[in-house]
Amino acid sequence: MAHPQETFSRTSFPSSSFISRRRQVVYENTLLYQLNVLKTTGRYEAFKLEWHPTYDDKPNVWPVPNHLFWDSDVAKWIEGACYFLQWRNNAEIDAAVKELVEMIRSAQQPDGYLNIHFTVVEPAKRFTNLRDLHELYNAGHLIEAALAHSQHYQNDLLMEPILKYVDLLYKTFGPGPEQKHGYPGHPEIELALLRLYTKTKDPRHYAFGRYFIEERGNPKGQYGHHYYDVESEARGESSNERPVYLPASQSYWYQQAHVPIVDQHTIEGHSVRAMYLLTAVADLVRMEGTDVSNPKLDALHRLWSNMVDKKMYLTGGIGAMKQWEGFGIDYFLPSGTDEGGCYAETCAAIGVMMLAERLLQLELDRKYADILELCFYNAVMTGMSVHGTQFTYVNQLASSESDLSKRAEWFTCACCPPNVTRLLGYIGGYLWTSNLVDQRLAINVHMYSSAKLAIPIGDSTVEIEQKSNWPWEGKIQFALRNTSAAPTTIRLRIPGWATQWKISPAPSSTELVNGYLTLSPEWLQANPSFELDIPLQPRYISPHPYTNQDIIALARGPLVYCLEDVDNPWVNDHFKGLVLDPAGTINEIPASIPGAEEPYIGLTALNAASFVKTDSGQSPHRPPEYITIESTEEVKELHFIPYALRDNRGGRGQMRVGIRRKH
Ligand code: FUB
Ligand code: ZN
């Protein structure tokens, strides 16, 4: 079973593209920048297990110590570094990985335990609070780091201590009478264990990942009670003593642990946790087989649809609720803090990409790939500045005075920045998937860019190269070189938003199956070079009417656009009062960000702006005439920039994606 974290190494980026330029920035700037932050904040040396002054800090969110995920920050950086080192060596990064691995090895306790906080700060409290304290989450990230490390270095220097730690965990947790019937409050180890199994083929790793998934939400898991209740009682906590992210006692929907996964009907709670969990569930389904009816697959379908149809922002972001960093009720998708909330954490969108890719592997359907691409180009790429040294955690669709559209150099809870790093390290694995069955090869192309895929078959190789200026231009040149005897089929995703497309030379059938066009081995033998043209034109998109937001946003291809004060300096209300006439003309304007490599296409709406005006009226029963729409001569042009590129040119941090629609 293939995962993008392994298959990415078959993809190279011989010519320049949006993706290759982002990768170059991460390789040149981000990795070293983040390494420096790891060092200056104490994370780098934390596996030396010495006391750090920050360990005395009062938690920002009780009971979660601020440094609790340092293990995962380091692990994600190692993982990302190993992906990039496979591509191109860098002595400083290589040396840092090696030193970190030595420190991790030396931090392992004689029984295999491996965790910074519970070794240095609270050794007596190991495994006493799985609900809140992230031991298993950190372990999962260490496993993923070890997988990337062994893939790159071809040694077991990191894998060895990690396997020893997994052995300890395997002994500690499970269905046995002497074992804890627990599972992590923050899923991550499940997907890591299932990936580990594909490498080790150790059935315990499979069983362990499966156990965590299936035990989750068991109302009678431990001594006839929910595991988290038993755990908190053992800690002597009263039922009203709970973290702020649990709105009521036992609101275990926050951790997707209110009921077993197969009984969950709507996507709830913390959005990153939900995505990591469902990613693992999809892997488990893939391992169990989809030929028989599988209630886990039904759950995946239900939860995916609920999320995409009712709980996803125009940008692909998920999570409206700041309190629990996650989903609100259906259709609750306000654009910003002062409009009801908007969270859309970068990691959550990365999680959607992971889940979408797993679902694509289960069933080839562009509905998954469309969302994968939407998230990548908007909700994820907006998380890092063009220079790769500033990041966002929360990605609102509208700024406010309390939450300006501004990136930060780092965060106390720093999950997002290294997550973007590692994602760009293995992004090649998301562009396409392939499978070889009975010596017949199928390549499914999900995302367009400039990239080359090389698949070894015996002593020969099948190579497919795509060349394009995606997402700025929609023409993609393909070349297939097949020196093997394996007949090869290519399936091309035609995005759901594409109203026109053309392939030349034209195949005899252009029928789409689930949004993919199939090019047969025979056709490809006659036409190893061909061109797909998906014209990219500005279009309007809007959220579901049940969101009660009569707004429109501009999109072009996979990119969603926003307004910023830098281009529209007259703004003083975060574009709240702006009204946009969809009948206005939209011009495409080539532009660039000073000092950055990324040229982009800006959009300008001409004579489309007017403003809401309110007369004095009796509150709250105002007559409809109280609101009028006024045109203004002064704002003839509205300038839009891709949301992914916001906050790269200074400004006051005023930004908005969805604008009130003029009727
Ligand atoms: O808890 C670990 C990570 O930090 C989560 O995934 C993020 O939401 C942030 O809370
Ligand atoms: Zn995050």
TrEMBL record:
Keywords: Hydrolase. InterPro entries: 6-hairpin_glycosidase_sf, Beta-AFase-like, Beta-AFase-like_GH127_C, Beta-AFase-like_GH127_cat, Beta-AFase-like_GH127_middle. GO terms for biological process: carbohydrate metabolic process. Residues 543-657 form the Non-reducing end beta-L-arabinofuranosidase-like GH127 C-terminal domain. Residues 16-425 form the Non-reducing end beta-L-arabinofuranosidase-like GH127 catalytic domain. GO terms for molecular function: hydrolase activity. This is Glycoside hydrolase family 127 protein. It comes from Oidiodendron maius (strain Zn).
